[in-house]
Amino acid sequence: MSLGYAGHARLEVEDDEIAIYSYTGENWNVRDEDARSALVSEEGQFTISKSCLIELAMHGKVERLPNDRKGHVEKAIVKHPDLAGMMDRGDIVVDKLCGVDTEAFGYRRVLIYACSATSLRATS
Q: pLDDT digit string (tens) for 57-67?
């Protein structure tokens, strides 16, 4: 049974045009604890052009609540950015792959997760 992958991004430097993030990844499929720790310890870095970031949209509506009253409920509208297109255009530049992405021979699995979380949290 496969457990999967996880990615975490941290903002390092930011200005009006770009943001530089460092990121790490975890591969829960690696059973050896020492090998997993070595993969997590190797950080990657990527640069995102702020022009490609999407802002989180909120949608509000009136719904019936569990206590049979009506209430205003806000939900986030999830948009999935075209990350491959952004990389092709140069809006996202990978400066260095993290340990998990390097092990996967450039597949960039964790980078995709980290970019998705970063793009959806843009508030500029």
A: 888 888 888 88
User: pLDDT, tens digit, for every residue of 84-94?
Assistant: 888 888 898 88
The residue type at 118: T
Burial of residue 67, with CB atoms counted within 10 A of its CB: 0-12 exposed, 13-18 middle, 19 or more buried? exposed
Q: What is the pTM of this model?
A: 0.64
C-alpha separations of 13 from 44, 61, 102 in Å: 14, 37, 23
Smallest CA-to-CA distance from 12 within 4, 2, 26, 23 is with 23
Gap between the Cα atoms of 63 and 79, Å rounded: 23
